[in-house]
Amino acid sequence: MNNSWHPECFRCDLCQEVLADIGFVKNAGRHLCRPCHNREKARGLGKYICQKCHAIIDEQPLIFKNDPYHPDHFNCANCGKELTADARELKGELYCLPCHDKMGVPICGACRRPIEGRVVNAMGKQWHVEHFVCAKCEKPFLGHRHYERKGLAYCETHYNQLFGDVCFHCNRVIEGDVVSALNKAWCVNCFACSTCNTKLTLKNKFVEFDMKPVCKKCYEKFPLELKKRLKKLDIEKNNNQPRKTNLIQS
Hints:
The protein is 19% helix and 21% strand. It is built from five helices and 16 strands. Strands 1-2 form a two-stranded antiparallel ribbon. Strands 3-4 form a two-stranded antiparallel sheet. It is elongated and about 95 Å long. InterPro entries: PINCH-1-4-like, Znf_LIM. It comes from Prolemur simus (Greater bamboo lemur). One of its GO terms (biological process) is cell-cell adhesion.
């Protein structure tokens, strides 16, 4: 570098490794050890550095414990076959895809990693609970209802904002007339008594039970104490806000 140095003073400009015995590479006016030079070069090319040999990975990297590697540095823990970027990690070991699939471990549809805990089955795939999220706000559903559109999942709020009303019963976009009742939207054909499935309209008398409509006949079969409790809840709601639906008077 056109200068004289004490051996212990000539160090890598990035990691401070002593260079006297290991050599160096000149990089943009800096003296770097080879691993740091490779990392800088890879960063400029948009590629990864293998954490085992510290060379640039030209092909698809194998991600093991969140670090990139050349795939051929590893062998399948089951059959011993040299691995490719399709290898799967399970409990700290790497397996080729066929061996991993034989173990029956589900793969997350988002991160493509094995799912060892709770599994969400939705949209024809399996997901980590925290990875099954709304395509708009990216918040996990965590067991709450989701709405599908062109291969993507949405929470109710953003689905309605983007695509219109969704039927509370069939979970589909309402293309025709909308029945607005119990603070929800329903298809005309889906708005029915939740007990006997008799079709209802807003002209029919019904009560709300478990967030669903119940017709007059089914309501009359409820125990007296339950009817009193429902009527009390309805009075409390009426005191707080206007009520648009027709309710049965006992």
